[in-house]
Amino acid sequence: MTPIEMPAGEIARRVREGSLSALAVAETHLAQIAARNPTLNAFTDLTRERALAKARDIDARRAAGGALGPLAGVPFAVKNLFDVAGLTTRSGSKINRDLPPAAADGPLVARLDAADAVLVGALNMGEYAYDFTGENAHDGPSRNPHDVSRMSGGSSGGSGSAVAAGMVPLALGSDTNGSIRVPSSFCGLFGLKPTFGRLSRAGSFPFVASFDHLGPFARTAADLALAYDAMQGPDPADPACAQRAVAPTLPSIAAGIDGLRIGALGGYFARGGDPVIYAALDKVAKALGAATGVELPEAHRARAAAFVITNVEGAQLHLDRLRKRAADFDPATRDRLIAGNLLPAAWYAQAQRFRTWFQREVAKVFGSFDVLLAPSTPCTAPLIGQQTFVLDGKEVPLRPNIGIYTQPISFIGLPVAAVPVQGVSSLPVGVQVIAAPWREDVALRVAHELERTGICAAPVAR
Question: Strands 190-193, 416-420: parallel, antiparallel or unpaired by DSSP?
Fold first, then answer.
C-alpha cells in the first residue's frame, strides 16, 4: 500500500515507529496534487514550503527520540474559508482576495498542526459557502474524481475532491445546510458534521452564524474520529463552543452497535428522489436491523424555515459588500443575498419559533432511537453545469434542491456521520447517520460498523 492509499491513522503509526518518513509522505502527496489537481481543480493555494518544513521537523524529532502527535506526518488541506497564516482567506469569493493574508492559523488548523498533521494547502469552494454544487464563478468548478464531468458537491467541493482523489487523506470543510454531507455523498467519502457548538468556528469566514459547523472529510470512519478528536476543545473565541468539554471518540468507535436503537427515516425522507438513493438507504437499514418508516414531523417546514434563516442571516452579513461591490459577486449568489435582505422580519421570527418547536419534536424521536438514517442527497452527482433535475416527478432547479435531506438536520444542529454506500450505483451514493446532540461517538460507531462489514467504503478514485 502506498502513502496515497493509506488511511491517516496508518500513516501516523508508521511515521511514529520510523518505518515511513514524514518527508516522504509529504512529497508523495504533493506529487499527487501536481498530477491530479490540474484536472480536478480542488486546490486554490498550496503551502508547499510549510509542508516540507513541518515534515522535516517531525522526522528530526522522531530521530531524536521526541514524542510525536496522533496525526504525525498526515497531510491535510482546508476549505479556503479557514484562516491559514500567510494566505488570504478567500471564502471562494473575488472580493475577499483584496484582504490581507491571515496573521495566524484558525483554531482547528492550529490544533491539527499541534497534532503534527502537515498542511499542504487550501481548497476550492462555492462562493461564500452559499452553494451545493462545487462550482465557483471565479476559480472554476472542482471536479468529481469518480467522473470529471460531474460535480463534486458544495460548498466544500474542493475538500471532497481532494480526499477522494488521494491528494490528501484528510480535509476540513464547513456545513451550514449540507456542505460536508453533499460532497461526501457525491465523492464517496466519510464526513462528519458535528453537533452545533462542538468544534470552534473561530478563524473561519462565516455564512450563517446560527447554522455554521466545521468538520472533517476522510476515507475511513476511524480517520474521521482521529481528526475530530484532535480538534475538540472549548474556545472562548466562539461563544457556541466556549464551554464544550473534550469527548474522545476514537477509543469507542469499535465497540459495535449492540444495544443501539436505530431507525430509518421515512415520509419526507423517502420520496421524490432517484430510486438508487433509497436503495442505498434500504441496504444500510437492513444491515443494521433498523426500524423503517420513522417520521420527523413537519420536516418539509424545517427545510423551508432553514431557507428563510439562511437567506436573512447570510444577506445581513454581506449587506455592505452588496452595496459597494455587487458586480464582483457570482450573480447567482448575489441575487439570493439581495432577496434575503428583502424578506420580512416576521418571517425570520416565525422561522426561529418553528425551529424551537422542531427541536423539541425531534428530541422526542430520540427518546425512542439512538440513531436515525436518512439519504444524504436526492440524486447522485449531476453533470457540471446542469441546471435542473427531476424531483418528485417534476423538473426543478438543481442548486437549491440538492440539500432537501440535509437542511432539516443541520437546522437544529444534530451530529451526522456521512457514509458512502457500496454496490448500489456506478456513482457514489451517501447516507446520513444521525445521532442525538453531543453523541458524535454513536454516529461514528455506526459508521465504523458499516465500514467493518463492507457496506460502506471510500477507496481512492483513480
Answer: antiparallel
Active-site residues, by number, are 79, 155, 179
Strands of 1-61 (E only): list them: 43-46
Q: Which residues pair with 118 in a beta bridge?
A: 75
Reported as half-sphere exposure (CB side, CA atoms, 13 A), residue 313 has a value of: 21
Instruction: Establish if 159 belongs to a structural domain.
Output: yes
What does the pLDDT look like over 214-269, one tens digit per residue? 999 999 999 999 999 999 999 999 999 988 778 899 999 999 999 999 999 999 99
Number of domains in the chain: 1
- Which CATH number is 65's domain given? 3.90.1300.10
**Model pTM above 0.90:** yes
CA 92 to chain centre: 16
Does any domain span residue 329?
yes
pLDDT 10s digits, 84-105: 999 999 999 999 999 999 999 9
Structural domain including 279 reads 8-452
Q: How far, CA to CA in Å, does 223 sit from each of 185, 214, 396?
A: 17, 16, 37
DSSP for 151-181, please give it. Answer: E--SSSHHHHHHHHTTS-SEEEEEESSSTTH
Q: Quick one: residue 256, left, alpha or beta (phi over 0 = left, psi -120 to 50 = alpha)?
A: left
**Residue 246, pLDDT score:** 87
